Recover the amino acids of this structure.
C-alpha cells in the first residue's frame, strides 16, 4: 500500500519502426522524452504494427530490410532511444506486436467509430494524398487512428507528446473514451492531452519540405563527423546572399533554423542573425558553427549507440522487460473495458 | 510422429452470439455440423467480437442482455451447440474473444485489403442497406470480412460451411491468402472452399423474409410443444386455399417448405403435395403433420439443452478446453505468418 499521491501523469508516445531515427526526431521528440522521463510514468511504443499500415508490400522482403527500408526496424529504433538517453529504469519501452491487447482493443474501438468519421480525419486525408493512395488506401491505414486510440487508452495515458498535426488523432481517441465511459456510465478510461514539442518540425537540409529518410540527406543519430559536415555544407541558406558583405535573410535559412534548434548559446545566435542580416557574415561561418554544434550533439549519441549495438542481449532484455510491464497494464485495461461492456471472459 | 495421412479437411464455422439459435439455424447449419464432425477437424467459433460489429451500442446494457438482445449471448449459443448434438470430444468450440491471435491477424490483414475492396463486398453492401447504416457504418462493420479472413486462416481451415451469401467473404479471405503467400514466396496459408448447406435459408413462419429473432415468431431450440404448435398453426400457407376441397399452392407455402426441411418421410410429403394441389387436403392436416415433426425434432434438443443448462461448470470447462486448443493453433499460425513477414518477435 502506497501513500504517495498518484499525481504523476502517464505519457505514451513512440515511433513507427520504419527506419533509424534522425536528428529531426532528436530535436522534436527524443530529447523531450529524456527530459520528461523522471517526472512522469513514460511508455515508449515501438509501433511496428502501425508501421505496416502504409508499408505492407515491403513485408517479407529481406532485401528491403537490409537496405534500411520497410516497417521492421524495431531494434534500430530501440538503439536510438537508448543512445539518446532514454533510461529503461524509468521509461518502459514496448514493442507493439508483443502486446496483443492493443490489437484486441483496436478491433473493439473500430465498432465505436464510423467510416465517415475516419475519412474526415484531416491528418489521414493529408497522408492519403501524400502517399498517393486515393481510393486504394489500405483499410489498415484508414483505421490506424482507432488503433492509436487503443495504444493511448490501453496505457491509460493522460499526456501524449506529439506534433500539432497529431491533434485530430488524440481528439478521436478522446471521443472513443467519452463514448465508452458514457455507455458504461463510469469513467473507466481517462482522456488524454497532447503535449506539443517546443521545437517544431525541422526542415530538410535542402529546405524542401520536412526531413525524410527517402530524400537521403538526413543526419542520422549515428552520423560521423564527416557526414554531418557534408550535409551542413550543402544546406540551403539564402540564395541571394552571394558575397559575405551582402545582407542575408534569416527566415527560411535552414542553417539558422537548425542553430535555433540545437545551439545552446541562444544570445550568440541572436547576435549572429543580426550581423548576418546587416551583411558581413559569410555562409561558411554559419555552417562551421552549426557543424560544431551538431557534432557535439551527435558524438555521445553515436558512441552510446555503438556500445549498445554490441550488446544485443542487453537490448533484448530491455524489450522483454518492457513487454512484460506493457502486457500487464494493457491486459488490465482490456479486461476492465470488457468487464464493463459485458464481454464474455473465461476465468 | 504420426503416419496417418492428413487428408482430413479442417472446418471453421460458427455464429455471431447475438442470441439463442432457432430452428432455422438447426436446418441450415447445426445439423450439418453434427453430421460433419466425425470426418473433419471441426472448429466452431462463438463469434462474440464479430457480434459487436453491428451491436456496439448494446454493450454494457444489462437490461438489453436480460431481454435477449445484444452481442453477449456466448453461453446461450454454446448450449444450443451441445443440445443439437455437437460433440466436444471431436468438435472444438472456441470463444472468439479468448483468442487474441484473431484480433492480431485481423489488424494485420486490414493492411492487405483496400477500403474500396471492402466497400465493393456485395454482402456487406446489402447488410449496410438492411441495417440503415449508410455513411455512418461503423468501421468495424466495414472491416469484418477481414476479421473473418483472420478467423478462417488462423485455424488453417480448408472448408467453410456457410450460406451462398457468404461466398464473397471467403473469396476475400482467399485473396488475402494469395497475396501473403505470393509476398513470402511460399504457400504458408491454405485457401478455403465454401460448403453450402443442402437446405436453403428457411422463411419466417409468416412467409415474410427470412427468420429473424426480432420478428418474434421464430421457433427456438428450447420451444415447448405448445409454442411449436402455436407458431405452426399461424403459419402462412396459400391465402386462396379457403375450403378443403379447393386446390392449393405448394410454392411459397411455408408449411411445405418446413416439411421439406424437417420431415424424413420425403415420399409421403411428395404425395401430400400432389393431393394438396389437386384439392381435398386441409391446411390443418398439413399443420398437424408439421407440428408432430417439429415436436419430434425439438424435444430431445430442448431436453439436452435443459440438462446442459444445469451444469454451467461443465459448459465452462468445454469452453476452456476449446480456448486452449484454439489458442494453440491460432497462435501458431500467427507466429508462422509473422516470421515469414519478418515481424519482430522476442526470443
Amino acid at each position: 500500500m502506497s501513500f504517495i499521491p498518484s499525481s504523476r501523469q502517464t505519457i505514451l508516445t513512440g515511433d513507427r519502426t520504419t527506419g533509424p531515427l534522425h536528428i529531426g526526431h532528436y530535436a522534436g521528440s527524443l530529447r523531450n522524452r529524456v527530459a520528461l522521463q523522471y517526472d512522469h510514468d513514460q511508455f515508449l511504443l515501438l509501433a511496428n504494427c502501425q508501421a505496416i499500415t502504409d508499408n505492407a508490400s515491403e513485408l517479407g522482403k529481406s532485401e528491403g530490410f537490409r537496405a534500411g527500408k520497410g516497417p521492421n526496424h524495431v531494434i534500430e529504433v530501440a538503439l536510438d532511444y537508448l543512445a539518446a538517453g532514454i533510461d529503461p529504469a524509468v521509461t518502459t519501452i514496448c514493442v507493439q506486436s508483443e502486446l496483443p491487447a492493443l490489437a484486441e482493443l483496436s478491433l473493439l474501438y473500430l465498432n465505436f467509430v464510423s467510416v465517415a468519421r475516419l475519412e474526415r480525419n484531416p491528418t489521414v486525408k493529408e497522408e492519403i494524398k501524400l502517399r498517393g493512395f486515393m481510393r486504394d488506401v489500405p483499410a489498415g491505414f484508414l483505421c490506424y487512428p482507432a488503433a492509436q486510440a487503443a495504444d493511448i487508452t490501453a496505457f491509460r495515458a493522460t499526456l501524449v507528446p506529439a506534433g500539432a498535426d497529431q491533434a485530430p488523432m488524440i481528439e478521436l481517441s478522446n471521443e472513443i473514451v467519452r463514448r465508452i465511459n458514457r455507455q458504461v456510465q463510469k469513467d473507466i478510461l481517462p482522456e488524454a492531452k497532447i503535449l506539443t514539442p517546443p521545437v517544431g518540425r525541422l526542415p530538410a537540409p535542402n529546405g524542401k519540405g520536412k526531413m525524410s529518410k527517402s530524400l537521403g540527406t538526413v543526419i542520422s543519430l549515428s552520423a560521423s563527423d564527416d557526414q554531418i559536415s557534408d550535409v551542413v555544407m550543402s544546406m540551403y541558406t539564402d540564395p541571394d546572399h552571394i558575397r559575405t558583405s551582402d545582407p542575408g535573410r534569416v527566415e527560411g535559412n535552414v542553417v539558422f533554423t537548425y542553430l535555433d534548434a540545437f545551439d545552446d548559446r541562444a544570445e550568440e545566435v541572436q547576435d549572429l542573425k543580426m550581423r548576418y542580416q546587416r551583411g558581413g557574415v559569410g555562409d561558411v561561418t554559419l555552417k562551421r558553427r552549426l557543424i560544431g554544434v551538431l557534432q557535439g550533439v551527435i558524438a555521445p549519441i553515436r558512441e552510446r549507440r555503438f556500445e549498445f549495438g554490441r550488446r544485443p542481449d542487453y537490448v533484448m532484455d530491455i524489450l522483454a522487460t518492457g513487454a512484460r510491464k506493457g502486457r500487464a497494464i494493457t491486459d488490465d485495461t482490456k479486461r476492465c473495458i470488457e468487464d464493463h461492456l459485458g464481454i464474455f471472459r473465461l476465468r
Observations:
- The beta strands of chain A are 10-16, 41-47, 91-95, 159-161, 193-195.
- The first helix of chain A runs from residue 23 to 36.
